[in-house]
Amino acid sequence: MSFAERIFISISADPDRLGKELEWLAKIGCIGVHVRLYAHDSPAVTEFKKHAVRRLKNLNYAVTISLVQDRRTSANPELWEEFCCDILDSVRDIVMWVEYLHAINRVKWGIWNLNELEALLALLPSLSEKYRDVTFIAPSVIDFEWDYMAAALERFPADAKISALSTHLYVDRRGAPESYQGKFNALGKLQLLRAMALSCENFQENLIVSEFNWPLLGTREWSPVGSPYVSPGERKNDPSVSEKDAAIFTMRYIFIGLCSGMAESMVFWSLAAHGFGLVDPGTNPEAPWRGRPAFRALKFFFKLFRHGHYTKAILKGEKDAWMMQFVSGEGDNIAVAWSSSKTDAHEPLPPIPFKYSKVYNLYGEEIQKPASLGADPIYIT
Questions:
Q1: How far is CA 103 from CA 33, 58, 152, 208, 210, in A?
Q2: Are residues 15 and 123 in the same domain?
């Protein structure tokens, strides 16, 4: 699996958006696509999305899906099982993995207590037996709530075998992925969650970040930290970031997560959303879509690493300097470097351990070799 294949872009696959989403997926050049299927959707929409998953596969995308519960199915496990079987009967042979349940530690997604969670997890052994060709991941705890993750892991049936622990690991309340929440930065959080997976006999050693993004400044009620209403007056301690910073943090999080070996793959949620997407679709259906800086950054990433592989870490945060080395599909060396310093005093550009001829900025534009590292990752090849 190439380095680029480990990043998935999530789309809605809704009937009124799929056409544009396919157009923008082609523009960004990603390999993997992720789709959520919701228990609260109408049968017609669910049927459309199942066909959309097959269409994506026919377009040569690697497709992954998440099965999302609602209150009705959370309170009635037999209805949840019926929903899961309906989806899996249609797509079992074409998806790389299936995320079982969604944001289980948020009551708005339907699960109100751990007893309800345990009843839904109890279905996993029979589903795994029925769909032996399906790779399941779980339990999709959102945010860094390791205590809830521990409680969830204790409730897996002994005979449930899960390929990877999934987490919706956001770092948006701390801005940069290198920033700390207590004693943990993003890397530390990934290390703890992977250790938890290794300590549980139900799981293989893989960890998948199945959802992440950054909330964007000025997007009001469309922001994930502003919904579903906007308070009057100026907001205090707004964790939102600029579009440029979102691009910078997205790429740094990807490199830290994947190059550390802690995350097997990562899913950006989502392609198009006014409050957090790679593309701004506006606030009404007639608005033109606009690619944001993170879209441009990932577009170059997918082009550069489509057949590339990570080889080693040169710098791992010493004096806030980071550098990773890769090899392209053509055998060329590539280094990615940045500084996570919160001041303007960045480290000088360190020696590059191979001959190189070009330096590119975050968006794939050729630039002069900088004297020092900056917050924006650069590519040296």
A1: 19, 29, 11, 14, 10
A2: yes
